[in-house]
Amino acid sequence: MITASPTTLFDVLIQSYRQFPQRTAFIYRAAGEEFAVTYEKLFDDVLLLARAFREKKIGHGSKVMLLSDNRYGWMVTDLALISLGAISVPRGSDTPTRELEFIMSHADCEFLVVENEELYEQHREMTDKLPQLKVTFIIESESRHKLFQPIYAYQDLLQDRTITPEELQEFILSSAQRRPEDTVTLVYTSGTTGMPKGVVLTHRNLMHQIASLPPIIALTEEDRWLSILPSWHIFERTAEYIALAAGSCIVYSTLKTFADDLVTYQPTLVATVPRLWESLYSKINAALEKQSKKKAKLFRTLVWISATFRRNSRQLKNHLPRYEKVFFLRIRWLQKLRALGAVVLLFPLYLLARRKLALVQEKFGGRLRVAISGGGSLPDYLDAWLDAVGIRIANAYGMTECAPGIAGRALDCPIFGTLGKPIAGTEVRIVDEHGQVLPAGCEGEVQVRGQQVTPGYYNNPEENEKSFTADGFFKTGDLGKFTLTGELVLCGRSKEIIVLASGENIDPTHIEATITMLPFVADAVLVGQDKKGLGALIVPDMDKLKEYVTDKFSHLVGETEDFLNDKQVMAKVKNEINKLLHPKKGFKPYERLSGIRFLDKEFKAGEELTNTLKKKRHVIEQKYKEII
Length: 628
Prior knowledge:
alpha/beta; 8-stranded mixed β-sheet
C-alpha cells in the first residue's frame, strides 16, 4: 500500500489519483480540438500503457529513449515507465541524428519511443543499425505492427482499454517495488560546453523537489500552469511533477499560441526561461514604438517611475542585497532619507503608473500569481522591468544535476536582486580556487550538497571525479556570492570567463545583457579569449537597425545599403554600445568593445542554442572563427 508520505513518483501518481480523481490534470489541443483530462483518466491511461509496455518486455532497469516534444502522451509515457521501474532517456524532436546515436549507444537504450512517423523516418537509417535496440514504439501513427517487425504504434497497443478491479489493485500494489534510490531518468545535458553527459536522477532527487518547491510558491490544487518549455528538460519536467503532486492543472501551449493562451486560460503560474522574457520585453517596446513615439516614451516613463519607487521602497525596508556591514550609522540614515524623499515625491505618480501598467498584466490573463524564471540567469534590467510592470517573478537557480532546484527568490523572499536562499534541505557554499569557504560578499565557485544532487554522470567516471569534492559537494562551475542575510547572487560562470591577453578576466553575461538593451540588437555574444580586447558578434534586428541608423546617422543612409558590413555604421554602433559600457555605469575600462561584427543569421535552438535557449559558446566561436 502507498504510505501517507510518498517516497517515489509512482506513489505521487497514486496519491493524486485518489485525492483528485475528477479534477482536471491536463488541457491540450490535438487536430484543432481541445481535450481535458482528469486525474482518474490520466491514471487509467498510465496503467494501460504500462500494461502494454510490460507485455513487450519493458521492466525494471530497461533503458528507453523517449524522443518527443510536449504532448499529453509524453507525460503518460514517462509515468508508465516510472511505474515499471524503467529508466527514461528523454530528448526533443530537434536532436540531430549523430547526437541521438551517441546518446542511445552511451545509455544502452534497448527501446525507443518516438513521437510520430516523420521523426521515426528521419532517424530510421541510424536506429536500424543499433544492435541493442529491441522494439520501437510510435506515439502518433496509424497501425504499424506486422509479423516479425518489432515496431508498434500506440494505436496497436491500446486497443483493449478494459481494466479489471484486480488489475487496478495489482498496479497500485506494485508501487511497493519502487525504491527512492532507483534511477528514474538519464537526462543528457544540452551541451553548452561539448558532448552531452548523462545525468542520473533518482526518485529521491526528484521527491526532494516535490517536497521543497511547492511551499515557496504557495502551490495548491486551484492553480493552473501554462506550459511552454520542453517536457524533457528537467526544469519543465519537475514543474509538471510538482503540479501533479498538488492536484493542479497543466495547460500545454506553444510559442505560436502562448500569448493567446495566456488570455484564454488565465493561468496562475507560468515557468519560462530568461530568453522568453527578453523576447516579451523587446516585443512590447517595439509594438509601442510602432504605434507612436509619444506612447512609447510615456510607457518608458511609467516603468521608470514604478521601478524607482519600488527600489527606494525596498531601500527603506532593507529589502535590497547587502554584502558588507555599514559601520557608520550616519551613512545608513542618509541612504534611508534619500530613499524616503524619493518615495514621498513619487507616490502619487506611482499610483498612476500602477493603474496604467495594469494593462500589461491583463495580457497575462489577469490571474497570474507567479512567473517562474529558470534555466538561465535573468538579467538585472529585465528583473527590474518585469517587477516594475507588476509581474511577480520567482527567480530560480538550478541545474540538471540538481533536479534542478538549488535556490529561488519566490514568495518567501523579499530581497530583490537575488536568487533567494537555498531551498529546504540544501547546503550551498562559496569557495575560492583552493576550496576554502568564503564569507558573505566574496565571489567564488558555488558548490551544492543535498538530496536533489545527482549520484553522478552515467558511465562517466572521469567527469564524476572532476565534479564532486571529497566531502560530497557538487561543483556547479557557477560563480556567486552570498548577501549578509544569506541570499545567493550569481556573478557568472567560470567556464564562460574570457581571459584577455593582458590577463584580465571578464564575465560576458552582464555585458551581453546590457548590449541587448539596444532596440536593434536581437542577440549578442562576446569574444576575445587571449586577444588584446573584447569583440562582439551581434545578431541585428535589421528593420530596427536601419531605423536606428536613419534616425541617428542620417548622413550615412545615402552612402550605403550594406548595413551589416559598412565600417562607418559599425564604428558608430560600437560607440553607442560603449556608452552603455562606461565606467560610470559600473563597467571596467577593459570591458569596452574593441570591435563588433554583425551576423546575417539568427541563432537557432539545436544549433547555436540549447533547447532552453542558452548559448553554446564553443559552437558559435567555432562557426564564426574566421571573423573573430
